[in-house]
Amino acid sequence: MKILSLLLSAFALLPGALHAQNLTGDWQGTLKAGPRDLRVVFKISRNPDETLKAQMISVDQGGQPIPVSSVTQNGPGVKLKVDLIGGSFEGALNADATSLSGTWTQGPAPLPLTLARATPQTAWAIPEPPPPPKAMAADADPAFEVATIKPSRPETQGRGFTMRGGQVMTINTSVSNLISFAYDLHDRQISGGPAWMESDKFDITGKPDAPGQPNLLQMKAMVRKLLADRFQLKFHMEKKELSVYAIVPGKAAHKLTKNTTSTNAIPSLMFPRLGMLPARNATLAEFAQVMQSAALDRPVVDQTGLQGRYDFTLTWTPDEFQFTSFGPRPPQPAEAATAPDLFTAFQEQLGLKLEGKKAPADVLVVDRAEKPSEN
Fold first, then answer.
1. How many whole angstroms separate alpha carbon 199 and alpha carbon 78?
2. Which of 62, 233, 288, 356 shows the greatest Cβ crowding within 10 Å of its Cβ?
């Protein structure tokens, strides 16, 4: 009887144990981020091969789905990585698989977060994301219809070029940064000009004078016109042999994922933290440009021969020669210290190689630049 009783007890526990492994569904919880309470939802489902996939939605920040890079489960332990914003959730399922208790990490200080399995009765209403903006005509040659240029706040970290709504924005950018972006140059390819071109930082917001969302090339054309109009930039070009980094094919096939988004869509190439670049809808040339402008100490050229747009995430531990233009380094999450160096990460994560070599390169010589005209 004792043996039969034990068998029956084990059998009675089995359905709960199986259910506890079922992560699919919607999980929701409130993140206390400083003075704000942010409701977040993770929608977990299965791929055709039975692996797990997910999306993250910040209900109080517009409801736009953010792809979850990976979903891993080890017994009751669950980890969700959201590389696009440099975040991750790590927690444990309770016995009846109705809640996940753990922490959200996005920066050096983890925050407690408990996720509850949503039911039709408890699920939060998620706002409809805005429709994708209509693309600007491919043959349009836009300028800023109007642009506001303001000094950046001294405490601002990092820098960026982006679109928000119908506006083109730059954040914490110097004139040298604007030149690098507009002309696809590294700092070493810019010569001459007054010292304030590097020391003074600006936030720029402006609307294109043509309808629709500009693509990346059109954004760069807008910044070139802004430099000439508002900063009175004048220059000439020279050729010099410089030390560069070349992105070249690896020994085996690359590990990049082809992106099927509209070719006019703006690529996403923003660093959520130093040493992490989740690239979406990016060409290898665009990837090379952002690496040279933000991370590396010399120009970067794409010599892979790969065409088209790709999705990938590159994570590495920066050395003391990388990200020097970003100023003092903010504290990094513990997992950042376990990542490989950049050259190893290129091979292991992308299936590509980064090689140092000498090559002839364009150099932009500044003949004139003035502080920005009034808004």
1. 45
2. 288
Q: Which residues contact 325 (CB under 8 A, 6 or more apart)?
A: 187, 294
Residue ranges of the chain whose pLDDT lies below 70: 1-21, 262-265, 327, 329-330, 332-336
CA dist list (Å): 44 to 15, 21, 76, 277, 298: 21, 13, 15, 24, 42
pLDDT of res. 165: 74
Instruction: Count the Cβ atoms, other than its own, within 10 Å of residue 39.
Output: 16
DSSP assignment letter at 361:
E
Is residue 181 within 8 A of residue 101, CB to CB? The reply is: no
Q: Which CATH superfamily groups domain 23-117?
A: Quinohemoprotein amine dehydrogenase alpha subunit, domain 2 (2.40.128.120)
- In the chain, domain spans: 23-117, 144-368
CA distance 65 to 108: 24
Question: What angle do the packed helices 216-230 and 175-183 form, to 10 degrees?
Answer: 140
CA dihedral 318, 320, 325, 327 (to 10 degrees): 100
**pLDDT at residue 134, as a whole number:** 86
Tokens of 8: 């029956």
- Under DSSP, the state recorded for 346 is I
Give the integer Cα–Cα distance in Å for 269 and 291.
9
Compute how many other C-beta atoms are within 10 angstroms of the C-beta atom of residue 79: 14
pLDDT for 204:
96
The per-residue pLDDT for 19 is 40
Nearest Cα to 93, choosing from 83, 111, 79, 112? Answer: 79
Hey, what are 15's tokens? 């359905």
At residue 178's C-alpha, the angle toward residues 150 and 284, to 5°, is 135
